């Protein structure tokens, strides 16, 4: 099983157990909202654009709400469980695009629950996550108000954020750095080092793709 399929399956198992009304780290979204988002993202090309483009977000939200109304919770999770659209036809594309998507959303649900703890990841998944963090740091940190130095425990350093400004060092495992850079700063197990004002600004910044 690929990492994309593994994270998808684990997320859907968790959704099945929790039900449709539990919180997530996605602002304003319950588990049912997240499940509907995943279905729209892969199975409703007419509504995909609104995920990234604010002028079209209203239509996308209406499609998500209709999906929630039309399908029972097991049906909605079932639709999310199987790759849809092009990802069903091209497993390699599913792995390339959806590994981080489903990893982050799996953690969005896990970390919104009480007493969560970081998972022990397979070394190859940890390495893959760090590779994606390394290549995507400048994009994910483009809105940072301060310079950022990402230190991966176990080796690796990446720079992001504006040059010539105060810098904050962020240290943690690859998965924690990913969650931080995806805008989940409050739920990432990392250590921040720098001037207190710069650290506070980074904690509150809007990060992610």
UniProtKB/TrEMBL annotation:
Origin: domain of life: Bacteria
SUPFAM superfamilies: DinB/YfiT-like putative metalloenzymes
Alphabetical list of NCBIfam families matching this protein: maleylpyruvate isomerase family mycothiol-dependent enzyme, TIGR03085 family metal-binding protein
Protein known as: TIGR03085 family metal-binding protein
Lineage: Bacteria, Bacillati, Actinomycetota, Actinomycetes, Streptosporangiales
């Amino acid at each position: 099983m690929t990492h994309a399929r593994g994270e998808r399956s684990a997320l859907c198992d968790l959704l099945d157990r929790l039900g449709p009304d539990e919180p997530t780290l996605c602002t304003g979204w319950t588990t049912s909202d997240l499940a509907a988002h995943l279905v729209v993202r892969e199975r409703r090309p007419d509504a995909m654009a609104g995920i990234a483009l604010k002028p079209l977000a209203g239509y996308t939200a209406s499609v998500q709400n209709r999906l929630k109304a039309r399908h029972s919770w097991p049906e909605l999770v079932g639709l999310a469980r199987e790759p849809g659209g092009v990802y069903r036809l091209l497993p390699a594309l599913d792995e390339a695009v959806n590994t981080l998507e489903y990893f982050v959303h799996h953690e969005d649900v896990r970390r919104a629950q009480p007493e969560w703890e970081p998972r022990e990841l397979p070394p190859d998944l940890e390495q893959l996550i760090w590779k994606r963090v390394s290549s995507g740091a400048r994009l994910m940190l483009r809105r940072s108000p301060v310079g950022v130095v990402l230190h991966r425990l176990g080796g690796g350093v990446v720079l992001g954020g504006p040059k010539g400004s105060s810098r904050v060092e962020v240290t943690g495992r690859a998965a924690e750095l990913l969650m931080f850079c995806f805008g989940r700063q409050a739920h990432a197990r990392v250590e921040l080092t720098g001037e207190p004002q710069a650290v506070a600004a980074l904690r509150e910044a809007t990060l992610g793709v």
